[in-house]
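Sharing a chain and its predicted structure for anyone who wants a worked example. Both blocks are below, sequence first, C-alpha coordinates second.
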Amino acid sequence: MTKQNAVLLVEDDRDVAFGASLRLRAAGYETLLAHDGREGIDVARRRHPAAILLDVRMPRMNGLIALDKLQHDQQTRDIPIVMLSASLVDQQAALDAGARYFLTKPYRPTSLLTAIGKVIAESHCE
Protein backbone atom coordinates (compact mmCIF):
# COMPACT_ATOMS: atom_id res chain seq x y z
CA MET A 1 0.00 0.00 0.00
CA THR A 2 1.28 3.46 -0.90
CA LYS A 3 2.21 5.79 1.93
CA GLN A 4 0.25 8.87 0.85
CA ASN A 5 2.70 11.47 2.14
CA ALA A 6 6.03 9.57 2.07
CA VAL A 7 8.80 10.64 -0.28
CA LEU A 8 11.86 8.47 -0.80
CA LEU A 9 15.07 10.47 -1.30
CA VAL A 10 17.75 8.49 -3.13
CA GLU A 11 20.83 10.71 -2.98
CA ASP A 12 24.48 9.91 -2.26
CA ASP A 13 25.35 13.47 -1.20
CA ARG A 14 24.29 13.51 2.43
CA ASP A 15 24.10 17.32 2.54
CA VAL A 16 21.69 17.42 -0.42
CA ALA A 17 19.64 14.59 1.11
CA PHE A 18 19.52 16.39 4.47
CA GLY A 19 18.44 19.69 2.90
CA ALA A 20 15.76 18.08 0.74
CA SER A 21 14.51 16.07 3.71
CA LEU A 22 14.19 19.20 5.85
CA ARG A 23 12.24 21.02 3.15
CA LEU A 24 9.92 18.10 2.50
CA ARG A 25 9.25 17.47 6.20
CA ALA A 26 8.51 21.18 6.70
CA ALA A 27 5.91 20.84 3.94
CA GLY A 28 4.28 17.88 5.71
CA TYR A 29 5.86 14.92 3.95
CA GLU A 30 7.40 11.93 5.66
CA THR A 31 10.87 11.29 4.24
CA LEU A 32 12.65 8.01 3.66
CA LEU A 33 16.35 7.98 2.79
CA ALA A 34 18.61 5.81 0.63
CA HIS A 35 22.15 6.60 -0.48
CA ASP A 36 22.45 4.65 -3.75
CA GLY A 37 20.23 3.07 -6.38
CA ARG A 38 20.26 -0.45 -4.94
CA GLU A 39 19.27 0.75 -1.48
CA GLY A 40 16.62 2.99 -3.06
CA ILE A 41 15.01 0.07 -4.87
CA ASP A 42 14.96 -1.97 -1.66
CA VAL A 43 13.33 0.86 0.32
CA ALA A 44 10.80 1.51 -2.48
CA ARG A 45 9.77 -2.15 -2.50
CA ARG A 46 9.41 -2.30 1.29
CA ARG A 47 7.79 1.07 1.97
CA HIS A 48 6.06 1.98 -1.33
CA PRO A 49 6.33 5.79 -1.01
CA ALA A 50 4.02 8.24 -2.78
CA ALA A 51 6.98 9.59 -4.81
CA ILE A 52 10.72 9.15 -5.27
CA LEU A 53 13.34 11.88 -5.63
CA LEU A 54 16.19 10.09 -7.41
CA ASP A 55 19.68 11.42 -8.09
CA VAL A 56 21.16 10.42 -11.45
CA ARG A 57 24.84 10.10 -10.57
CA MET A 58 25.51 7.76 -7.64
CA PRO A 59 27.91 4.95 -6.79
CA ARG A 60 26.97 1.23 -6.94
CA MET A 61 23.93 1.85 -9.14
CA ASN A 62 23.20 5.14 -10.90
CA GLY A 63 19.76 6.69 -10.97
CA LEU A 64 19.00 5.86 -14.61
CA ILE A 65 19.54 2.15 -13.98
CA ALA A 66 17.51 2.36 -10.76
CA LEU A 67 14.73 4.21 -12.64
CA ASP A 68 14.59 1.43 -15.22
CA LYS A 69 14.47 -1.27 -12.55
CA LEU A 70 11.78 0.57 -10.58
CA GLN A 71 9.62 0.97 -13.68
CA HIS A 72 9.91 -2.69 -14.61
CA ASP A 73 9.10 -3.97 -11.13
CA GLN A 74 5.47 -4.88 -10.45
CA GLN A 75 5.75 -3.52 -6.88
CA THR A 76 7.19 -0.10 -7.79
CA ARG A 77 6.24 0.76 -11.35
CA ASP A 78 3.38 3.04 -10.32
CA ILE A 79 5.52 5.25 -8.04
CA PRO A 80 6.21 8.60 -9.75
CA ILE A 81 9.87 9.57 -9.94
CA VAL A 82 11.48 13.01 -9.96
CA MET A 83 15.08 12.89 -11.15
CA LEU A 84 17.75 15.21 -9.80
CA SER A 85 21.19 16.01 -11.27
CA ALA A 86 23.77 18.75 -11.50
CA SER A 87 24.20 17.92 -15.20
CA LEU A 88 21.74 19.15 -17.80
CA VAL A 89 23.06 16.38 -20.05
CA ASP A 90 21.17 13.95 -17.81
CA GLN A 91 17.85 15.73 -18.24
CA GLN A 92 16.76 14.31 -21.59
CA ALA A 93 17.98 10.82 -20.73
CA ALA A 94 16.03 10.89 -17.47
CA LEU A 95 12.82 12.13 -19.07
CA ASP A 96 13.14 9.69 -21.97
CA ALA A 97 13.62 6.88 -19.45
CA GLY A 98 10.32 7.71 -17.76
CA ALA A 99 11.01 10.24 -15.02
CA ARG A 100 7.97 12.43 -14.50
CA TYR A 101 9.99 15.55 -13.67
CA PHE A 102 13.63 16.67 -13.66
CA LEU A 103 15.29 19.11 -11.27
CA THR A 104 18.74 20.58 -11.82
CA LYS A 105 21.05 20.94 -8.81
CA PRO A 106 21.22 23.30 -7.16
CA TYR A 107 17.44 23.38 -7.15
CA ARG A 108 15.14 26.01 -5.69
CA PRO A 109 13.21 24.72 -2.67
CA THR A 110 9.93 25.83 -4.25
CA SER A 111 10.76 23.83 -7.40
CA LEU A 112 11.34 20.71 -5.30
CA LEU A 113 8.03 21.08 -3.48
CA THR A 114 6.16 21.89 -6.70
CA ALA A 115 7.59 18.86 -8.52
CA ILE A 116 6.83 16.44 -5.69
CA GLY A 117 3.34 17.86 -5.20
CA LYS A 118 2.58 17.62 -8.93
CA VAL A 119 3.74 14.04 -9.42
CA ILE A 120 1.86 12.85 -6.33
CA ALA A 121 -1.34 14.65 -7.41
CA GLU A 122 -1.02 13.29 -10.96
CA SER A 123 -0.50 9.74 -9.72
CA HIS A 124 -3.74 9.96 -7.71
CA CYS A 125 -5.61 10.92 -10.88
CA GLU A 126 -4.41 7.92 -12.88
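Comments welcome. Strands lie at 3-10, 30-34, 49-55, 81-85, 101-104.
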